[in-house]
Every structure is written in C-alpha cells, then in structure tokens.
Amino acid sequence: MARAPGRVNLVGMHIDHQGGAVNPIAIRETRVIARHRPDGVVRVANADARFGEGEFALADILPPGAVNWSDWTREVSAQREADGRAVDWSDYVKAALIALQEQERDRKGRYLRRLRGMDLYVESDVPVASGLSSSSALVVATAYAAMAVNDISHSRELLVRLLGESEWYIGLRGGIGDHAVILLAKAGQLSHIELLPTRVEHAPFPADCRVVVCHSGVSADKSAGARNTYNERVAGYGIGLIWLRRRFPAQMARVERFRDLHPAHMGIPLAEFYAMLATLPVRASRERLATLLPDDAAALSTIYHTHDEYPDGYRLRGVCLYGAAECERSRRALNSLRAGDAEGVGTLMDVSHDGDRVYAAGGAPFTADVGDEAMARLSATAASPEPDAAALHLQPGAYAASCRELDELVDCARGVDGVLGAGLVGAGLGGCVSMLVREDRVEELADTVQRGYFEPRRIEPFVEVCAPVDGATAGPA
After folding, report:
1. What is the pTM (predicted TM-score) of this model?
2. Number of domains observed in the structure of the chain
3. Which one, 44, 177, 286, 427, has least CB within 10 Å?
4. pLDDT digits over 272-307, tens only?
C-alpha cells in the first residue's frame, strides 16, 4: 500500500512551473493498494462511487518509440479533445505508469524491462476538484505502488520532476511544486521548496496557528475550458519574457527563468524594473503580438500550442507583475516563519489573493489597475525617499484566477479577528480557500463562514482544520 498526502500551498501561487518557490504543508492522504498481474493489464477501482472501474493494457497506451515527452503529451491531449473524450480519473494512473515506463528506455530507445500489470484500488481523504492536489496525490501514490510491485527505486528528487511532468499527459501544463511537497513534506513543518533544481528547507509551523481549509462549493475542474484558462495564464509569463528580452537585452542577460525576473538578480533599481514591466501591453492578441514581435514567431507558436487563443487577448502586464511579486513573496515566507512572524506570512497570503481577485468586497467586478499611470506612480514611488509602499512583495499584480465564490469566502474569513491571511488554493477558478488563523479563533472562524457563506447558499459546509503531515510512503498493506 502506498499513501500520498494532498497539500495546501500558503504562499507561492502559480509560479512553480516558472522555477519559483512554494511554501506548502501536506494534509490528509490518498491510499493505493496494488498487487501484480502476469498479463500486462492494469485494472483500477475506486472507493468513491463517483468513479467507475476500468482496465487497460499498458502496452496500448505507451508511445510508439522514444519521443519528446512535451510534444507527445501535447499530441495525446489534443487527440483526446478532438475525440470528445473527457479526462477520466484513470488517466492520472496512466500518466504515472507511462512516466515510470519511459524511465526504462536504453540509449537506443528500447525498453530495458516492461512494467508488470497490476490491480489498483484507490481510496482518498483528499476532496477532488478542490485545489488540494487530489490528482497529484493519486499520481504519486500510484507511482509508489507501481515501483514497489516492480522492484524499482528512484530518488525523490527525480520523482518530483518525473511525476510533475507526467501530468502533461492530462493536458495541463502545471509545475512540480505539488509533487515536491507530496514527496518531501515533514510533519509539523512548513516546506519551502525551490524548484528547477529542487531544494527543500523546512520551518516549524507556528504552534498557536492552524490552517483552515473551506471549499467554495465550486469545482476547480480540469475540463477543456478550465485547462485553456490555466494554460493561457502560464503563457503570459512566456510571452512576457520574450517581450522583455527583445526590448531590454542588457538588463535581461541574467534572466534564464521567470523566477530570475527580479531587480536584485538583474542588477537594476526597482524603479527601472517597474518601468520595464510598464512597456508590456496590458492585453495583446496573437495578431497584435505578431506585429509587435515579428522575429519571435517560432517561439510564440510553441507557447500557443498548449491552448486556444483567449477572446480578449493575453493578460501580459498584470500576469508578469503578479509573477515577479509572487516569486518575491515566496522567498520571504520562509524567513518570516523562522522569525516567528506568522502575521507576515498572513500578509503575503492576502496580497497574493488580491492578485487573483476578480470581485471586490461587496460583489462588484474587480479589475486590478496596472495601467500606464499606475505603473508610472509605482516607478516614481520606488525612486522616492520613501519607497516602502513600492516594495515588490506588496504588489498584487493581476493574475485573475479567482471567481466570485472564492473572493466572497476570502472576504468572509478576513472579517474574523485572528485570521492572519486568506487566499485561494491551487490553480483557482473554484475549489478551496486556505486561512491562516490563531488556534483560539478557529471555532469563531468556522461559525462565521458557516453563517456568512455556506448557509446563504444552502450548501453543505466544508471546513477542515489542518495540521502538517509527512510526505508519501509505501509499504506492505
């Protein structure tokens, strides 16, 4: 039996795929019981009655030969959509098994050995479509079970990358931060995980605080439409880097990944950094980008492959400001916690969610101001004798991956004295909100969201009080 926890990331949203750090705790768990079969068939069953049973031959789902994983998984997901086939829960099992099998190729592209068939039975305490990484927990638990059945051993560091990229098979170009905490978490600790390459540090979670997770009642699913939105936001980072490298080659010389987009790393003043970001279009269509970046057609085309064009054009300036600021917030979170500054961590959570916000308190649609005048003021403040308000970690930017329900749940929680910070969990568009709260205010918080959020909507309350648990393990059932 293998077990793998879910996760709640407190600071460091939407940046793990850009090499940014994440600051999560591991919670609950998914369990997979496996036994080998002699016929190469994989049979799957789930304790959750919403998910059906199924079976497939592993040989039927493998690539035809040695392939470029990025290109092949893109083709597979595109074909799935063309066939009108929705992603099934068993596809996450397939993703883990294919990734493990591909590790068995020799230099000539031949398999050194074939994985055995298996019977797999899954049960989980991690709610699905909640932003708590139920799918990644399933991938990791499946991989651990399969490695035990096949007497395979891989380092956790290799598995972080391998299993993170395995989910490209599903069609979502996410990062590896979820898999890193699922594999590397420690009980009672917050994990600070730097990615690409993976480096992990831990800090004791505050003894007088708890993380409370509330489900909004809106599923954060991975349908074709949702995947398109997720991938469009990620594309904003890549387009932004192309734009900035084209216009500021000297300043961008040391920027390899988006996480390097930081004034100290680049060796420039903060005011100049904001002025560079201000040259990015607030939004830009593919047609406009073709005109503005005529020499980068091939690079842009590669980025476009993961999604359809968004109707109003790519959010470039707001996404890039959010990403640069969130990378800085993620760097600060560990030091704040080690200094005993739980309030500082809460502030970082609040600012991060405000960068995702799409509805203001009171319910009016919200659009962050990242216009020319706002950026000019930000740059001027950064260059002034009192630059504190322009600090990078205090800038929310405009990633806009929230929804009305998430914003209302966050605002409801923030009204409770003792809630230090609150924000969405995971990729957004639904799912859960996490709240960092003093232990003696947990009951008040639960009562407040019950009366202020769940009862008016007549939905079953989901309020989970979480403590950090260990990462994935495997052993005899």
Report:
1. 0.85
2. 2
3. 286
4. 999 999 999 999 999 999 999 999 999 999 999 889
